[in-house]
Amino acid sequence: MESLRAKKGFICDMDGVIYHGNRLLPGVKEFVEWLYREDKKFLFLTNASGKSPKELQLKLHRMGLDIDESHFYTSALATAKFLSRQHPGCSAFVIGDSGLFNALHDAGIAINDVDPDYVVVGETENYGYRDIWRAMRLVNNGAKLIGTNSDLTGPSENGEYPACRALVAPIEATTGKCAYYVGKPNPLMMRTGLHMLDVHSSEAAMIGDRMDTDIIAGIESGLDPILVLSGVSSRETINNFPYRPRLILNGVGDIPC
User: Fold this and answer.
1) pTM of the complete model beyond 0.90
2) Average pLDDT of the chain, as a whole number
3) CA distance 135 to 28
4) What is the Cα–Cα distance from 121 to 147, expressed in whole angstroms?
5) Superfamily for 78-181?
6) Pair 16, 243: CB distance under 8 Å
7) Which positions are annotated as active-site residues?
8) Buried b or exposed e, range 93-115, using 16+ CB within 10 angstroms
């Protein structure tokens, strides 16, 4: 724990670590107060693509946490950055919510449902047969398939829900094409987070609730991998993976001195 508390930078997942749905998790307020008190650099980095950093800031404000917008980074922003660097001036057919559409728009990526360069898929409740059909047709016509993240499920107050990879799967199955996933555990997103914090990987910790995204992202990017049991993982499910976090905590409230 002393090694963890000595880190200069903290990259934290959000859903399952900071909150469940609209409920702040125990110990989070004390953890954030500790981050500020100890002058730590921190970033709330989420694979969820539906909300913008401003919307995430307002969500936490409603829960009683006042955190600057600059402390948030999403897979939607990472996806927009990746596409704008790969193919400046490109266009995309998008399945997702406002956070994804806004991130792509701000990066100069046009929305195109006729002959796009990419089909981009993020989380959304507005998903159906027609979306799969249109995406299938466009990918078969040459559009490249992109997923904002590789999460199959996500945690909520009412149990797990289907996440991005579950929505991409029918498109992959019907086209025979594999998507490229931009969010965690892709090192692209992790390197951006470290750059935003201006710390070296050895000086930072990755705190998350998922073994298959957060913990493997920390391990592969050289951060201190810390698992919390406040989200989807349990001590039993950890044994399903051939790698381990360095520490297992009940929640981020265990960290403050």
Assistant:
1) yes
2) 95
3) 39
4) 5
5) HAD superfamily/HAD-like (3.40.50.1000)
6) no
7) 13, 15
8) bbbbbebbbbbbeebebeebeee
